[in-house]
Amino acid sequence: MAQALKPTFLTFLLSFFALYPLGIYAAVLTSLNQLKQKQYDFVIVGGGTAGSVLANRLSEDSKVSVLIVEAGDTNVGNQNLEVPFLGVTLPGTSVDWNFTTTPQAGLQNRSIPYTRGFVLGGSSSINLLTYNRGSDDVWNRWAQITGDSGWSWNSVEKYYLRSSQLVAPTDGRSTVGFEDPQDHGNGPVQVSIPGFPLPIDNIVLNTAKQLGGRFHFNEDFNSGDFTGIGYMQSTIGGGSRSSGATAYLNPVDTRPNLDVLINTHVTKLIDVNPASHARRGWLSGRNIPAPQPQLTTVELAQTSSGPRVEVTASKEVILSAGVIGTPQILQLSGVGNQADLKAVGIKTIVNLPDVGTNLADHPMLANYFQIQTNDTWDDVLRNNTIFGQTLGEWQQEKQGLFVDSPGNTVGFFKLPTGSSALQGISDPSAGPKSGNTELIFVDGFARFGDLAQPATGHFITVLSAVVSPTSRGTVKLASSDPFVHPLIDPAFLTTNFDIKAMVQAINDAVTLLSAPLWQQTLKPVPFADLANATTDALKADFARRNSVNVNHPVGTAPMSSSSSESGVVDSHLNVKGVSGLRVVDASVFPVIPECHTQALVYIVAERAADLIKTQYNLDC
Ligand SMILES: Cc1cc2nc3c(=O)[nH]c(=O)nc-3n(C[C@H](O)[C@H](O)[C@H](O)COP(=O)(O)OP(=O)(O)OC[C@H]3O[C@@H](n4cnc5c(N)ncnc54)[C@H](O)[C@@H]3O)c2cc1C
Ligand SMILES: *[C@@H]1O[C@H](CO)[C@@H](O)[C@H](O)[C@H]1NC(C)=O
Ligand SMILES: *[C@@H]1O[C@H](CO)[C@@H](O)[C@H](O)[C@H]1NC(C)=O
Ligand SMILES: *[C@@H]1O[C@H](CO)[C@@H](O)[C@H](O)[C@H]1NC(C)=O
Ligand SMILES: *[C@@H]1O[C@H](CO)[C@@H](O)[C@H](O)[C@H]1NC(C)=O
Ligand SMILES: *[C@@H]1O[C@H](CO)[C@@H](O)[C@H](O)[C@H]1NC(C)=O
């Protein structure tokens, strides 16, 4: 028996090593030539946050074939993606699409960078890791807008629980009173409170406990109530970033029924329904039920002038290219506002005017305070020796400053009653448990704008953001060339509400840092431009000159009820007027949540996977 087995095993070994260099067993395909089939059950466009979830969940059924196509590179082997603290260094590098906004009227006509992940895991591979599922109001509003109770807080709870789990902070300290394990599940994305507490953390948290009211302490934001001040929860496990790629995609990329193709752009979707072509010809105008276009062939290219290859989905194409990529691909495929498409020479297949509209994002501003201590991380950034020691601590033990994203504590606040921001409008937030503004407390000079870190001194940065903005912008094609960046106009700070709310957030930062606990300890003093912004009018000017974005764009292919004329997808995320095409990513958010967005993307993607599995009778 043993004798007989030997040659077989040897043959296996030999064939394994012989074939491996040819890419037969390669987990991830890097070239169009490596595609062995031109038809899959599902083709997922975009290997980002949502795409990674779908690739994992749909390929759980071994009878189903799945292709996921990502424009960027693999995340594996890139240390800067793994070290939480180094997330801030990623914008403007090879893992960023390097988009820029159009000149922003609300920002004194500045154009600002618009960072989006260009790598497996998408923006979850490069974001600043904060993990928020939103208040119960956020989800109940989605259910109300879409007429689908499947989006309510109670209904999506199971998807939240299956997407993430709470793990111990890296330093292993007791977390009692600083998080509530009951609010967490058992999914693959790892979430933890900071693993390297900083000197200002307790001052922030104890100030909240002392002041109460609008500034009350919140033990766990993921409980359903998203107001108050508490510890940041972040997608970090064992000191490393947990992303769509590390949690969902990398662990399954060797499944035989899943192909992961990287370094490849989807340039457009192609209609495979001949009847729908006919309709636009001789049938058009007659009273015949409209056959829907079926956009189930995707066109792929690795460079702008390179060869095009077509791959077809026998069941569905799923667009998970994110809030910029998804409306761009829809418009390149003839799905969008007819007049806009005509302007760039694209023939309209489905006139869906809301594609690329409704872009909403959170504007963010860095407020600097100088403090009386030497114990901040400012010197880590100034001194290569200290930086190297800190990185070494992460590499060898997964401990120290670099196990965390730069902000350890955070607050979400309702505007005070009578706020001038609310003149003439009712509170735009989802409800009583959602804030209007946010403050993130950073123990050093965090550069988010033009002002460079001073050569000396020690600082606190309080990042202020408007989380229930009323400004809405657009993503439109600049060209019919898929390799040309679209025009991105988030319309930051273009409403009275948004600018007044930002001014209130600045005032809240100043108020909090004037509280007794601060004045007894670090004595923060407003620094640079903030020091001179002594009136609300000057603060508004300061905000317009310095605001950037916190990178939470949503809503460029919003969901609405099936019967609604507006919106782009129905509540099951099918594109209206098209068959065989769904959108699953942050584009479908019907309204911007009053929190960071990634956890909501995981939840949307988990529900989408469930809807698809049910529709096609897949094994769970
Ligand atoms: C710098 C930054 C910081 C952030 N900080 C936080 C935070 O702290 N907390 C939080 O909750 N959220 C944060 N976010 C937001 C959060 O990461 C996103 O909301 C979320 O990851 C979006 O998921 P998505 O699936 O919609 O898109 P993405 O994850 O961006 O995925 C889209 C994918 O599609 C690919 N793609 C696009 N076009 C094409 C094409 N034509 N062909 C092939 N592939 C294509 C992209 O390369 C990308 O991989 C941040 C985002 C950024 C950029
Ligand atoms: C973004 O810009 C940087 C700096 O110019 C460049 O190195 C990087 O390759 C760019 N990213 C992409 C995806 O092209
Ligand atoms: C911004 O540009 C518009 C249009 O060109 C112009 O009218 C306006 O004065 C500019 N605003 C500032 C602050 O430069
Ligand atoms: C900070 O360091 C400087 C230079 O070493 C020293 O003079 C100063 O006393 C220190 N300040 C505090 C508050 O420890
Ligand atoms: C950098 O830090 C090291 C270690 O603390 C110290 O010895 C050195 O003097 C610092 N260098 C500068 C330029 O401050
Ligand atoms: C603040 O105002 C003072 C006095 O007008 C001026 O000297 C200083 O340059 C201003 N600082 C900044 C950062 O604008």
Automatic annotation (TrEMBL):
Residues 40-363 form the Glucose-methanol-choline oxidoreductase N-terminal domain. Its cofactor is FAD. The keyword Flavoprotein applies. Pfam families: GMC_oxred_C, GMC_oxred_N. It comes from the Eukaryota. Gene3D superfamilies: FAD/NAD(P)-binding domain, Glucose Oxidase, domain 3. Residues 469-605 form the Glucose-methanol-choline oxidoreductase C-terminal domain. Keywords: FAD, Flavoprotein. GO terms for molecular function: flavin adenine dinucleotide binding; oxidoreductase activity, acting on CH-OH group of donors. The active site is at residues 552, 596. FAD binds at residues 119, 266. PANTHER family: CHOLINE DEHYDROGENASE, MITOCHONDRIAL, GLUCOSE-METHANOL-CHOLINE GMC OXIDOREDUCTASE. Belongs to the GMC oxidoreductase family. This is Glucose-methanol-choline oxidoreductase N-terminal domain-containing protein. It comes from Antrodiella citrinella.
